[in-house]
Amino acid sequence: MATGSGGAATKIVWNERQKRFETEDKKAYLQYELRNSGKVMDITHTFVPSSKRGLGLASHLSVAAFNYAQSNSLSIIPTCSYISETFLPRNPAWKSVLFSEDLKSSI
Ligand code: COA
């Protein structure tokens, strides 16, 4: 069982008002904007305090956001470079949730 601050045991909270997925202490977060009448989640920024980096915490935040999007039939725009350059190449199965030109006709 992972017990580290970046491990899978870290609880991630959805902060609907501020459009964030965040740790309970709010120090690490994934920020998004809703577009296309709320059907598209544009992930604009991911932040983890320097003392907790490299432990997978940003990945954990990303999984929470992608799970939420998938469960609510939203598609994702990966504006944040961590998502596009690190998370998606390492977790290519999540590319199925991305917003694509093909979906434009349905939103
Ligand atoms: N863009 C893309 N990938 C990045 C990155 C960046 N700016 N900074 C770090 N990474 C990658 C590294 O390749 C690292 O790989 P490694 O583990 O092989 O060294 C990987 O992220 C680490 O993954 P993970 O442990 O899940 O991420 P993290 O919890 O350390 O958090 C950031 C990663 C980017 C959120 C964190 O470094 C941060 O807050 N940086 C400052 C803000 C920032 O640049 N945000 C991203 C752009 S919006």
From TrEMBL:
Q: Which InterPro entries match?
A: Acyl_CoA_acyltransferase, Gcn5-rel_NAT, GNAT_YJDJ
Which PROSITE patterns does the annotation name? GNAT_YJDJ (PS51729)
Record domain N-acetyltransferase: where: 11-99
What PANTHER family does the entry give? PROTEIN NATD1
According to UniProt, the name of this protein is N-acetyltransferase domain-containing protein
> What organism, scientifically named, is this protein from?
Deinandra increscens subsp. villosa
